[in-house]
C-alpha cells in the first residue's frame, strides 16, 4: 500500500500561541469560567525587554505566547496542540483526509503527536494530501503555531514513491527521517544506523582523557555516562552484535587504559568485570542484558495497557492467540489475557501440571480464563467423557476455580520479581545477571575511596602485575625478589623495606610499653 508520511516540527513554539485561541480551546474542552479567567491572568500582561550589548532596552507588553520556564506552559501548549488532532479527525470523518491501516486501528491512524513534534499518516491520494496541507494552514492561522515546512519531511512508501516529485511540492522529501532522535524505518536497523552512538562514545572518551582519572573515576564514568548514552536507542531496538562488540571494546579500553593511545594489560576478563558486585565483579552494566530488559518493558505494557500501539499489535499479530487477544465485540476493551490451563493464575503452578489427565483430553488447550468462566460451572469441552479418576479431578478443579475471587474488568499480569507487581527494568536486570552465588561485600562497605576499593578487589582476586603473574603472561624478566625466591603480592606489599622497618619499630615500642 502506498503511504506518504510527514514529520512536522513547529517553529518557535511557546511564543506563538494566540491567547484568544487558548481561551476558546479551554472552554471547548469543558473548563469552567473561573479556571479560564485564572489562566488568562497567568498568561496575559507579561512585560519583556530586549538586551542589546549588555543593556536592557525599554519594557513592552506581550500580546501572545506562553511564558518560558513556567510550569503551566507545557500543559497549556499540549492542550492547544491537541486541537490539530481534533481538526484532522473531524476532516477524516467527512472524507476530506484519510488515515492508514483502518483494519488495525479504528477509523485509521492519521496523526501522532509528542509535544511540538507531529507525524501525519496518509494513503496515497494527492487531493487529500492537499486537503491535509490546507488543514495545517488553517490550524496555523487559528492557533498562531507556524508549521516549519523547511524542517518537515515527506517519506513515501510503496507505490507513492513514484510520485515523490509531486509530493515534494508540499514539503521536502526525506529518506531517513528521525523522530525524537530515533530513526524511523519499516525495516530492521543496520549497523550504520547506530554509528552516531559509537561516535558519541569515542567523542566522550577523547574529551575525558582517561589518564586524568583514577580507576575509580573511570568506573563511575562508565556506569553513569558511557553506559547511559545508548539507553534511549536500547529501549526501542535490539542492538546488533557488531555494534554491541564495538561498544564493549570502547568501554573496556577506557577502563583498562589510562590513555587510549597506550596499551595496558587487562587484568581480568571483561565478562568477569561486568558481573555485579554481589557475584564478585565491579558492577559495570551489561549492555546486552540491559537491552533485553528495556525491550521486555514493552511486553508488559502490551499485556496490561490499552493504547493505539497496543491495539495495533494485538489486531495484527495476536488476534488469534491468547496473549492479548482482543474481544470480538467492536469497541470493547475488556479482553482475556490469562490462559486457563497454561498460565499460573490459580495456585503456584499452571493447571495443566496439577490436572494433567484433564489437560490431555481438553479440546481448547489455549482457552483463556475469561472464555472458561463465561458459563456455569465452566465452559470446558473434552474429547471424551469423564469417568473414574478424571471425573473426580474435574469436580476438584471446579471447586478450586470457583473459590478464586473474580472481579470484572481486564485481566492484568503481575510481575513476580517485584512486590508491587509492576514490571521494573532494574528487577529484571538483577534477576538475569544473578547466578545465585554471593560473595563477601566487605570491600564495598568499607569507607575508603573507590580507587582503593578496586585495588583491594585486585588483591583479593590475585591479578596484580607482580612478577609471578607477569610470568603467566609470558613475561621473560627475572622473577626473583629481595626476600623470597619469587615475587608475589604478599611480599611485594607487606615485606618491603619500609614495611620491615615499621614492623621492627612497632615491636620495640610494644616492648617499651610492656616494661
TrEMBL record:
Residue ranges of every copy of the Reverse transcriptase domain listed in the record: 1-213
Q: Tell me the domain of life.
A: Eukaryota
| PROSITE patterns in the cross-refs | RT_POL
Q: Which Pfam families match?
A: RVT_1, zf-RVT
PANTHER family the UniProt entry points to = OS01G0158850 PROTEIN, REVERSE TRANSCRIPTASE ZINC-BINDING DOMAIN-CONTAINING PROTEIN-RELATED-RELATED
What's the name of the protein? Reverse transcriptase domain-containing protein
Which organism was this protein described from? Paspalum notatum var. saurae
